[in-house]
Specification:
- Two copies of one chain form a homodimer.
- By secondary structure, chain A is mostly helical.
- Chain A has helices at about 5-15, 25-45, 50-55, 55-70, 75-80, 85-95, 120-140, 145-175; strands spanning about 70-75, 100-105, 115.
- Chain A has eight helices and three strands; from the N terminus they run ααααβααββαα.
- In chain A, strand 2 and strand 3 form a beta hairpin.
- Chain A is globular, with a radius of gyration of 21 Å.
- At the A-B interface, helix 1, helix 2, helix 3, helix 4 and helix 5 of A face helix 1, helix 2, helix 3, helix 4 and helix 5 of B.
- The structure holds a DNA duplex.
Chain lengths: ~190, ~190
DNA sequence: CTGAACTCGTTTGGCCTCGAACAATATGGG
DNA sequence: CCCATATTGTTCGAGGCCAAACGAGTTCAG
């Protein structure tokens, strides 16, 4: 969350703003850094290995999912990639226009669509994935193998906490009140 | 990166695809979880405390920066918030239209613009920030205080590695070759 | 069989996102 | 003073992002 300002400086400024309100500073530092690290990694990878392949981070992840798991229903692809189904429609369209992926109707259920790799997609991924992993390794270069495992473990607990209890928590915060409708979104037809 | 599929299953599939290519599996797991955790936290916070305030994550971060550090040159706001200056222009416009922030010309340098809070912005943040922090604490609920500090420390090392060595690494990967120009971007005028 | 209820992928609207191109301004040397 | 260079914030284009609304298709109860 914070850029080049020193941590101490930021902490002091926060204290000055909310000196009396009790805050969880440890959680603040941990979560803020999760976001900062994610952005830094994405930036680095997009501007190194993904740039030449003209792929975005999300495009790569979707491609990766289809590559690893093979032909798949699009809803499962979206879930694995961690994006909404609406987003997947657009990303899949982009990948399809680049000839890396093909969309096909589900053989027995007319509602579904399947996504699978083309030969060009296969070829690209077998070249790109090792390079991608090398940049992950570069990002983690200051961590030992054990520390990587530790980091992964701590983060998995954060993810699990939100997946297990997030929805209940959000409902609890609303306290029965109707959730504020999203500012954007499709308009009703009538 | 991976959703509900079991870790073991994913590992096995990766091995099957690239059995002979040596990969850093520990770094892969660590970095993938950084991204997953960041997305999960953002999702949760946007759908709880930020929803009612009609703020996006980025809008909140920008507001937070101006709130904490006071009137600021927009380039510094962008840097602190971790977004590009082009993005900041749009986000600041949104916040200004909501009456939370004001833009003013720099007193002595005509190129620059200053951003500062309105009274409404102050008021919103003093209410919103404690709630935001409470959700950070909720996300970190399965971590002890010491583990939060540990997590923050590990992530800071990842960020530092990319900040210190990222650019050199990207240049090295290019090997003198001209970087692929971005697909999008403003067209040349002539 | 038929219609209500559900489920899937797509569309839509508002916004964020980057980086390159640009206009406006500033700075420094000649 | 003038002009080249550097630095700002803005504009632009392609695309990612979500959730709500939607249409097409399925399922199941009556």
């Amino acid at each position: 969350m914070t850029g080049p300002r020193s941590l101490a400086e930021t902490e002091k400024a926060v204290q000055a703003k909310l000196g009396d309100v009790p805050l969880r500073h440890d959680a603040m530092a941990a979560i803020a850094n999760v976001y900062r690290a994610a952005a830094a990694v994405r930036q680095h990878v997009e501007n190194s290995v993904l740039r030449e392949a003209e792929l975005t981070w999300t495009g790569f992840v979707v491609l990766w999912v289809v590559w690893i798991f093979g032909e798949m229903e699009t809803r499962h692809v979206a879930q694995e990639a961690g994006i909404s189904k609406g987003t997947l429609t657009g990303v899949a369209r982009t990948l399809e226009s680049r000839g890396l992926v093909v969309r096909a109707p589900h053989p027995s259920d007319g509602r579904m669509a399947m996504l699978s790799m083309t030969a060009a997609g296969e070829e690209l991924m077998s070249r790109l994935f090792p390079a991608f992993n090398a940049e992950e390794a570069f990002a983690a270069d200051r961590l030992s193998g054990a520390e990587c495992d530790q980091l992964a473990g701590l983060l998995r607990r954060v993810v699990a906490q939100l997946e297990d209890n997030g929805e209940a928590r959000r409902l609890e915060l609303l306290e029965g009140a109707a959730p504020t409708p999203r500012r954007s979104g499709r308009k009703r037809k009538d």
